[in-house]
Amino acid sequence: MFAFADVRGGAGNNPSWHRSGSGLKKLNSIHDFVSCGEYLISEGFIHRNKLSALGISAGSLLVGAAINMCPELFRAAILKVPFLDVLKSLLDPSLPLTTLDYEEFGNPQTQSYFEYILKYSPYDNIPQGVCCPSMLVSASFNDSRVGVWEAAKWVAKMRDTACSSCSSAVILRTNINGGHFQEGGRFTHCWETAYEYAYLMKVVGATEE
């Protein structure tokens, strides 16, 4: 079963729904995503030991922050070209999307935004010694939007910080040739999707009821 959580999207003609989940209210969007997962479990759509999450680019920020807050909620997660080291990236205006991202996240050169972003930035909030879900983290070496180092740093810190039995379940997969949008055409997209499904079936299928 797939559930698409359009967390704090445009909401049609009501942009206030999006604005109330951005800037100094960004935590609302993360809490909403956690609530979506809890709802799927409480309503019986999915077993509580088999909930998985997928985040792409800035969507990985949402998933990564939710994993930090509620690691026990998820069995597995896929983070693709993930935006995880939010605070440090937004402090570097030389990066391609930094100034554009100020509209969504705020400028951390202002103290109030710095302190607020620090509360949810996935890289800065990995809990010590906690059991984490299995994770497949994919990055592209030629990604001009999200640096390949963000995924690498996240995986390294997660392996170093999480409990020892979970650290080996965090996998980094790097595409040496691709960019942010995994260039390669339809057949490459099908291959990538099959790889991700195989990963989820291996991880979730091994879960005992």
Automatic annotation (TrEMBL):
InterPro entries linked: AB_hydrolase_fold, Peptidase_S9_cat, Peptidase_S9A, Serine_Peptidase_S9A
Gene Ontology cellular component terms for the protein in this record: chloroplast
Record bears the keyword Nucleus: no
Single Gene Ontology BP annotation: proteolysis
Pfam families: Peptidase_S9
Homology family: Belongs to the peptidase S9A family.
Role, per record: Serine peptidase whose precise substrate specificity remains unclear. Does not cleave peptides after a arginine or lysine residue. Regulates trans-Golgi network morphology and sorting by regulating the membrane binding of the AP-1 complex. May play a role in the regulation of synaptic vesicle exocytosis.
PANTHER family in the cross-refs: PROLYL ENDOPEPTIDASE, PROTEASE FAMILY S9A OLIGOPEPTIDASE
Protein name: Prolyl endopeptidase
Origin species: Handroanthus impetiginosus
Organism lineage: Eukaryota, Viridiplantae, Streptophyta, Embryophyta, Tracheophyta
